[in-house]
Amino acid sequence: MSQQVINYEGIEQLPVAQFTEKAYLDYAMYVILDRALPHIGDGLKPVQRRIIYAMSELGLRATAKYKKSARTVGDVLGKFHPHGDSACYEAMVLMAQDFSFRYPLIDGQGNWGSMDDPKSFAAMRYTESRLSRFSQLLLDEVGQGTVDWTPNFDGTLDEPLVLPARVPHVLLNGTSGIAVGMATDIPPHNLAEVVNGCVALLDNPSMTTEELMEYIPAPDYPNSAQIITPRSELLKLYETGTGGIRQRASYHVEDGVNVVIDALPYQTSGAKLLEQIAAQMRAKKLPMVVDLRDESDHENPVRFVLELRSKRIDVETAMLHLFATTDLEKSYRANFNMIGLNGRPQVKPLKALLSEWLVYRTETVRRRLQYRLDKVLARLHVLEGMLIAFLNIDEVIAIIREEDKPKPVLMERFGLSDIQAEAVLELKLRHLARLEEMKIRTEQAELDAERQKLEKILGSAARLKTQVKKELLADAEAYGDPRKSPLIEARMAQAMSEQDLLPSEAVTIVLSENGWVRAAKGNDVDGRTLGYKAGDNFCSQATGQSRQTAVFLDDTGRAYALAAHSLPSARSHGEPLTGRLSPPAGANFKHVMLTQPDDKVVLATSAGYGFITQVENLYSKNKAGKAILSLSDRAEVLTPALVQADDWLVVVTDEPRMLVFAATELPELAKGKGNKLIQMPKGQQVNAVFAFKPGSKLTLVAGDYEKLFNATAVEEAFASRAKRGIALPRTLKKVTAIFAQE
User: Fold this and answer.
1) Residues near 434 by Cβ (< 8 Å), separated by ≥ 6?
2) What is the average pLDDT value for the chain, to the nearest integer?
3) Fold annotation for 14-186
4) Which residues are CB-neighbours of 126 under 8 A, at least 6 positions away?
5) What is the pLDDT of residue 1?
């Protein structure tokens, strides 16, 4: 309840809380309605509307000479918008930038900013401007009775409340603004698409948003970067009025190694983008890129060249990484918040927005036609009186000569209205010629035909709708252009892992008996020929790529993992694994593997048990590794062997015997003891396990002795798992390696 008090001096007093609440609400409503949000009718904020109207009043149409921007800003501030000149000029600049507005409303001459730095425009005393040709779609009907007028801030002039836009400008150039408690972010759209959507909606008001999207599939920015937002998300945006849009730079490949970026996302700074990419190159996070060049010029406003290391680089993967980590891909918020025809702010779905705008446009056309009809009827009325005067010219002249007040006499004598009598009295003598009667009758006929046409349109809702459609299509034909931002389906941007970013080089990991490790470049390195510290010798080696993860197995059955690229160079003796890993006391590293995570290997022990597992199961971020293989007393871990689908396994014991069976007979486990591989007497042990393709020849190596078994001999050893197998020569009692060849 108000606690207003007026003291004896007539000064109003209010509690602070009540005063501040009212003052803030008044301010909030002002910001919402008169500053930050566009009107659905013309899609303009008040400052933009006042700039456009003030320029038209200055005569700065598209065909006029340019005038200093300071002149325009001065008129806007002095007549309609008493705010800061810099804010007014910035709003003016934005409407002149073809990289900011899809259809610029102002034609600027001079420095109006650049894509790299939109705020680098010259001061208003240096630039010149006039209205663009497109702005006529907002102004052509201003003086035709189509708009309501309101006094300006000091009551000396009138200004239009809303401009009579001939097209749905609120969607075409879009806008963004922050009010109190709400904001707006309307993306730009293509004129031809929006007009086609409006025409379809006029023909079928019950069409769904999904059907409307056949005509308006997505926003259309003033650049040729790609819109990659899925259709489902765009449908949600248009159905709710809120959502997001993703835009991605477009590129093409030249000479196999040069990636040329020729279009950037909306409002993306090329200078900032180059710095982002260069920073990654300095941090060695872009090993696939060796050079970065800016080749932009007048003919190619956007041309950034990334030179790749080689033609073998996967361009799409590299670009997806850059899309995820730089401004080559950006997301934009969309919020169709605007002032509706009821004068209230509201977030509007696409169909509701266009339907409401069509109501506005239809009413604007009706008002324009009615205004013209009133003018035609008024002129016909005057012409009717003038014709009566011409038919009785002698009597009219006599009355004018003889009467002191001829006007009432003329009105009474010929039945003229006040307006008709006034028109007769204002006739000049030269218009009394005989030909003038013919001109009046011709004009009467033309105006009467126009009157009938206007009355037919105004008297029929269908004809009025047809008139609106014709005008929309004509404007789209005159001002429309093809879509600039292509709409595509694309893979999701994904930053590459540290492993993926590393150069892929062939390496050989060498492990010594004392647990020292090193990585040599190339896959043709023989670890036995390398030098070792005193008392140390070769133990195991594995070949692969530097991006892979090296897996180490110790004699307790634990597995450890280290990135291959992080291992020391083979130019030295390497370094002990115990500096990076923490195996159990007394444990020794025995084997090393370098394979893909989805490869499968056979893990087995000398006790004759084993299983198949995926290499990824052996990975561990823990320095202490993870227990994989369960060992019985005095059992040893055998050299792991890669296994593929349909492979056979060969098991060799020190009895010596050899058994071959299908790999599918062994289970796939993540860890454990596994199943029995071969039947053997107590005290015997398995020396080696190996996987190979059926039909291959096998070479068994025992020290310096090698023996080749052809495919027939191998098949003789084929049986079920856990059988005894066939006997081997005594020279193969200590088999240390097995090789296969087709």
Assistant:
1) none
2) 92
3) Topoisomerase II; domain 5 (3.90.199)
4) 110, 111
5) 45
In eight-state DSSP terms, residue 211 is H
Active site annotation includes 126? yes
Per-residue model confidence (pLDDT) at position 502 = 67
Pick the closest to residue 264 from 256, 255, 273 (CA basis): 273
CATH ID of 366-479, from 3.40.50.970, 1.10.268.10, 3.90.1300.10, 3.40.50.150 = 1.10.268.10
> Residue 662, Cβ neighbours under 10 Å: how many?
14
Maximum CA extent, the chain: 155
- Give the pLDDT of residue 179: 86
Tell me the C-alpha distance between 225 and 329, whole Å. Answer: 9
382: number of Cβ within 10 Å: 17
372-406, pLDDT tens digit by residue? Answer: 999 999 999 999 999 998 888 889 989 989 988 99
Which is the catalytic residue, given 24, 27, 30, 126?
126
With beta carbons less than 8 A apart as the criterion, state whether 664 and 631 touch: no
pLDDT at 600: 95
Fold of the domain spanning 596-742? Neuraminidase (2.120.10)
Q: What is the pLDDT of residues 167-212, one digit of tens each?
A: 999 999 989 999 888 999 999 999 999 999 999 999 999 999 999 9
What strands, in cross-sheet order, belong to the sheet with 657-662? 686-692, 648-653, 657-662, 726-727
Residues 191, 476 contacting (CB under 8 angstroms): yes
Parts of the chain belonging to CATH 3.30.1360.40: 250-327
pTM for the full predicted model:
0.75
Cite the DSSP H helix spans in 32-179.
Answer: 46-57, 69-75, 85-96, 136-139, 169-172
CA distance 209 to 207: 7
588 CB-near residues (< 8 Å, 6+ apart): 513, 515, 554, 555
Asked if the bond preceding 188 is cis, omega within 30° of 0, the reply is no
Q: What is the model's pLDDT at position 31?
A: 81
Which residues in the chain show pLDDT less than 70?
1-10, 434-435, 498-503
CATH tag, 250-327 = 3.30.1360.40
pLDDT in tens, 652-680: 999 999 999 999 999 999 999 999 999 99
Cα–Cα distance, 415 to 544 (Å, whole number): 111
Q: How many CB atoms lie within 10 A of CB 147?
A: 20
